[in-house]
Amino acid sequence: MRCSEKYFSPKICSFHSCFLGMILLLLAGGCSTHTGKGTGGAPTLSRPPVKTLTPRARKSIPRLGYTIQVGAFSRVENAAGLTEKLTKKGLTAYYFRHNSGLYKVRFGNFSSQEDARRKARKLLNDAIIADFYIVRPESYITAHKGGLGLLRQELTVTAADFLGIPYKWGGTSTAQGFDCSGLTMAVYRLNGLNLPRTSRSQFQVGRPVAKEELQKGDLVFFATNGGRKVSHVGIYTGNNTFIHAPRTGKRIQTTSLSNSYFQKRFIGARTYL
């Protein structure tokens, strides 16, 4: 065996020194758990491929466009009656208590102000509504730069404004969860977010959130008719409580998630922000 003259002089090369040199050369190459074949069949070192994580797309509900606002009722029953008329016309309508203390009705989701005006004029000519007001998208909290914290707070404040109101949603059966989901829909739409009408649709379009990770404005869902089908929904307001419409004709109230009835029937929560 000869040593390479590149590394050792023939005068001092011996079997032992050559052998030691070859070991040092091999050790200098390092080690790897992944090898491949280079030219001539010699093993070559290669790095494992770097995995890149693609962030999952966040589900979000669309923002509301132009909406029509009508009425100024001192009696909630009158607002509920107009809401039912509009619902029977195929319009998504809801009523709420205005800062003035009067009850008003909003409905529709139009892509342009002219489309909203055209629909309002038709209903006016048909004597279904009287005066109307077009609510612009930029008037909602979602158009302001306040962050999610402000939006979540506004959702809970809006929900609290409904407390004590005897709520009645017409046009859709309670089996589809519209009595309670009408409240959550109204709360979100009054803040510029186009939440669907029924509780089952609301459950489907939201992103799952663990019970211990609930934040203000998230929705909590229950199976109150047995089984695992969604039949009731409320809006989480913090401190383990939620606001909901118990059933047709009953007043909107705050309830604890620790309530034994709802604790047994809780089937999940959803976030949309």
Summarize the structure in words.
- The chain has 2 domains: 79 residues, Sporulation related repeat (Alpha-Beta Plaits); 128 residues, endopeptidase domain like (from Nostoc punctiforme) (endopeptidase fold (from Nostoc punctiforme)), CATH 3.90.1720.10.
- The chain is 29% helix and 21% strand.
- Strand 10 and strand 11 form a beta hairpin.
- Helix 4 crosses helix 5.
- The N terminus is likely disordered.
Q: How does the SSE layout of this entry go?
A:
Layout: H1 15-28, E1 35-37, E2 43-45, E3 66-73, H2 76-88, E4 93-97, E5 103-110, H3 113-125, E6 132-135, H4 147-160, H5 178-189, H6 199-205, E7 207-208, E8 219-222, E9 232-238, E10 241-244, E11 253-256, H7 260-265, E12 266-271
Antiparallel strand pairs: 1-2, 3-5, 3-6, 4-5, 7-12, 8-9, 8-12, 9-10, 10-11
Summarize the structure.
With 273 residues, this protein is α+β, with helices and mostly antiparallel strands. Helix content is 29%, strand content 21%.
Please write the string of helix (H) and strand (E) elements.
HEEEHEEHEHHHEEEEEHE
Number of domains: 2
Per the CATH scheme, the topology name of the largest domain is endopeptidase fold (from Nostoc punctiforme)
Strand order of the largest sheet: 7-12-8-9-10-11
Q: Name the shape in a single word.
A: globular
Tell me the fraction of residues in β-strands, as a range.
15-25%
> How much is the average pLDDT?
80
In the CATH classification, which architecture of the largest domain applies? Answer: Alpha-Beta Complex
The main pleated sheet reads as: 6 strands, antiparallel
- N-to-C span: 74 Å
Low-confidence segments, given as residue ranges, are: 1-57, 170-178
Estimate percent helicity. Answer: 25-40%
CATH superfamily of the largest domain: endopeptidase domain like (from Nostoc punctiforme)
Count of helical segments? 7
How many whole angstroms does the radius of gyration measure?
A: 33 Å
Structural class: alpha+beta
- CATH class of the largest domain equals Alpha Beta
**How many β-strand stretches?**
12
